[in-house]
Input
Amino acid sequence: MIELYNSLTGKIEVFESIERNKVGMYNCGPTVYNYAHIGNLRSFTMADVFRRVFEYNGYLVKQVMNITDVGHLTDDGDEGEDKIEKKARENRISASEITDFYTKAFFKDIESLNIKTDGTLFPKATEHINEQVELIKKLEEKGFTYKTSKGIYFNTSKVPGCDIFRVVGNELKEGARVEINSEKHCPTDFALWKLSDRNEKRQQEWDSPWGVGFPGWHLECSAMAIKYLGEQFDVHTGGIDHKFPHHPNEILQSENATGKSPFSRYWLHNEFLSVGGAKMSKSKENFLTLNDIVERGYDPSVFRFWLLGTHYRSPANFTWQAIRGASNAYKKLVGFTASIHSEEEQAHPDKEYINSFIKSINNDFDTPVVLALLWKLVKDKNVDEEVKFSTIKEFDKVLGIGISSPPDRSDSHIPEDIAELIRKREEARKEKDWKTSDHIREEINELGYVVKDTPEGPEVRKM
Ligand code: AMP
Ligand code: ZN
Output
């Protein structure tokens, strides 16, 4: 039984899928006008953890993540410039060159973070213009739209009760973060189709029944979710910033076009990742990408490991000190699992640990508790090493941090300082000084090497 916090209702609920043993999940994906920052990557990593937890529970997950390659405006609402057009203009290259480049970079990042992509669909907004136009037509037929000189708008006052804030509860006041557009009937109305400015030639624009223009940002997620997951599906995810206005707008336009409610049964929102206590901003130095972390010598798995140390609904604060600490802890873990790894047949995982593990992942995806359990297991003297290894392997199916991968023996060169530590450790072991030998092993791990004790003597390899 999976219990999760549903942002739609503000309650912890028992997860029940529409179709037995199947989950349809939509994840708000990247806007490809720049590299994904590490906050965006938190959102995508958590979506991957959700998928892995559903899969661990025996569900077949159909996952869809959009690639936003048009229409996301600089104010995240209906005003401002299109982020992609702006970047293309500033760099004097085409919009498609921008989006191709950053889409590739996004795929590279998620691969480095061990985010599962098998079977996942990554539809692009620009390749679903027809679907978006059709959705507007439906809303138009049902009387939910009106036209201004700027485009076609969704008329929120046409919705009985106009409970646009259902997702946000009472946290936000009407109109907050919504730009005032004098032609809008109500501040919460939002653009479905934006008409191109007659004085400016856009690179990305399409003909439509209402004139040449481009889709409003919120529309793509509705059109593509409906196309690939159906008019109703199970889970929708995104960062906390999407709790308003992006997701309520998605709900309004989808449910009123299809006549079916709820659009998604469960809404999962990850909290923000900040850097050095501040919100990441492109103009500040705290705009960090995965590459920045890798360039400082940290493996992407260390970043993933660090991310999972915070619950997805708690804010996370990145600091170099924190990632250094995570790196040391990660090396210890990898060193330990490699030292107990056996090529022989796997032992059965420890039942009690597996039960606690399942309880934690099914308790609103509680990864910090799973990590604490992992450390407890590592230190547990009452569990056989083979059993430990196969239990850790199970944990890693959800964590995805690569701590149970078989050792890579491709690099056989061992530097002299490591060899010296190995010798010292052997001496300590001969003296049965386990404290010193464990300490030296940790030192070896911190230097990026793994030592495994075999009947033929110590086996060393690079991590
Ligand atoms: P974007 O590329 O801006 O469309 O955002 C992609 C995803 O990252 C969305 O689900 C956002 O809600 C999420 N997101 C944006 N900033 C952060 C942040 N600082 N921390 C966590 N998630 C974020
Ligand atoms: Zn979205």
Observations:
- The CA atoms of residues 81 and 209 lie 23 Å apart.
